[in-house]
Every structure is written in structure tokens, then in C-alpha cells.
Design a protein that fits this description.
Blueprint (H helix, E strand, L loop, with lengths): L3 E5 L9 H10 L7 E5 L14 E4 L16 H6 L4 E4 L8 H14 L2 E6 L2 H8 L5 E4 L11 H4 L1 H13 L3 E5 L5 H9 L4 E4 L1 H4 L4 H9 L2
Parallel strand pairs: 1-2, 1-8, 2-3, 4-5, 5-6, 6-7, 7-8
Helix pairs in contact: 4-6
This protein binds SN-glycerol-3-phosphate.
């Protein structure tokens, strides 16, 4: 099985605004259906330009349209062709009650949620609500050079069993830097990976994505 690769652009200076557009122009040459690009809210309208790319939001709110200053509603994302989002990333944690509301709503709107969690306990807890994806990312490894697959193989295995039982796709992330890391994660039962610095901070992001995904 080919891994699904989620590239989180975060709010890195070289991945927001004009630079985001430049990166997407490069990535657009790849034509690989298994890659997802998670963009900053200010860049999500680029979906209308890069229609064939899988573009996800980095977060989404529970409310719909209305008097909700600063909100990113699922409805507004769907209206511009963005049909999925990360949720509860370590850098943007959310209240459990909102997470549950958002997952329930996503099912009605056919919107894909990648629910980020930080521990096996959270995998257990949130798998009950059946999000499309669970992404396990140990916060202490995010942005570093030790890959989650090297540091937490036992947790990935356990998490994949829990997710498989409920047909949830398991992603793993933090410190993923090489094709080896991706392969190891898959061998441990992951469905794909979530990566940021390994690609975005590389001087040649497209080359890194190609080698990391063995594309
Ligand atoms: O969302 C992906 C992220 O948190 C992992 O970051 O830089 O360790 O690949 P990084």
C-alpha cells in the first residue's frame, strides 16, 4: 500500500502567502493523489487555483456561518473546495466538547477530519467518535530529528490495532525526515505520515518530498 503523506505547511515564513503559492506550483508537478497539503488559513483560497491538489485546512471550528469573528467554518471551506482539515494539532489544541461536535458535523457534511492526538490514551478515547483519520504525534518530538517510528514503535503498533478495529486511518508524525522513517511507520501499521519541517525547512522542498515519499 502506498502511504498517504500529509505535508503541514504550519506558519513557516517560506510556506505562507506568496511563498505558499510558489511551493504549490512546484508540488503541482507531482500529480500524486496520495499527497495532502495542509495550508495556513490565509492561503486556503489557493484551492481555487490548484484544483487538482488535495488541500486541507490546518484547523476548523465547530460553528457554521454567522457572527463568529475569526472563525473557519466547515461550510466556508467546503464552499472553496477544501474538504478536510487537521484538528487539535499540538500547536492548536481544542476542547474535547468542540472536537466531538466537529467530528459529528464532519460526517454529515462528508468532510474529512484528521484528528491529532498526543498519546495512546487519546487514541483510545477519540477513536470512539470515529474520525476519518487519527494522527498520533508525540509533542516532544515535533520539529526534531528523532522520528516517531524510532522513538515510539510500540505505541504506533497499539494505535494501529485500535484504529484498524474501527476502520480509522492512522497517521503518525513528528521528526519524520526520510523514506526509511516513512517505511518503518507503515511496517508498524500506519496508513500514512504527517510531516512539516522535514520538507518545508529543506532548501529544496520538492526534492525532499520526492525522496521521502519514494515518488
Ligand atoms: O503536523 C506535523 C508536525 O507537527 C510534525 O512536525 O516538523 O516534526 O515534521 P515535524
Amino acid at each position: 500500500m502506498e502511504p498517504e503523506i500529509f505535508v503541514n505547511f504550519k506558519h513557516y515564513e517560506n510556506a505562507v502567502g506568496k511563498s505558499c503559492e510558489e511551493l504549490l506550483k512546484d508540488f503541482n508537478t507531482l500529480k500524486n493523489k496520495n499527497i495532502y497539503y495542509c495550508l495556513s488559513p490565509i492561503d486556503l483560497r489557493l484551492k481555487t487555483e490548484f484544483t487538482s491538489l488535495n488541500i486541507f485546512s490546518q484547523t476548523v471550528d465547530a460553528n457554521g456561518y454567522g457572527a463568529y469573528t475569526g472563525s473557519i467554518s466547515m461550510e466556508s471551506l467546503i464552499d472553496i473546495g477544501v474538504n478536510g482539515s487537521l484538528l487539535n494539532h499540538s500547536e492548536r489544541r481544542m476542547a474535547k466538547s468542540d472536537i466531538i461536535k466537529i467530528i459529528e458535523k464532519s460526517k454529515k457534511l462528508d468532510f474529512k477530519i484528521v484528528l491529532c492526538v498526543e498519546s495512546l490514551d487519546e487514541v483510545r478515547e477519540y477513536s470512539k467518535y470515529d474520525p476519518e483519520y487519527i494522527a498520533y504525534e508525540p509533542p516532544e518530538l515535533i520539529g526534531g530529528d528523532i522520528s516517531v517510528s524510532n522513538a515510539k514503535p510500540g505505541i504506533i503498533k497499539n494505535a494501529s490495532e485500535i484504529c484498524n478495529d474501527r476502520n480509522i486511518k492512522l497517521l503518525v508524525g513528528a521528526g519524520v525526515k526520510t523514506y526509511e522513517d516513512v517505511k518503518n511507520s507503515m511496517n508498524l501499521g500506519a496508513y500514512g505520515v504527517l510531516i512539516a519541517s522535514g520538507i518545508i525547512k529543506n532548501p529544496k522542498p520538492i526534492n525532499k518530498l520526492i525522496s521521502l515519499g519514494n515518488l
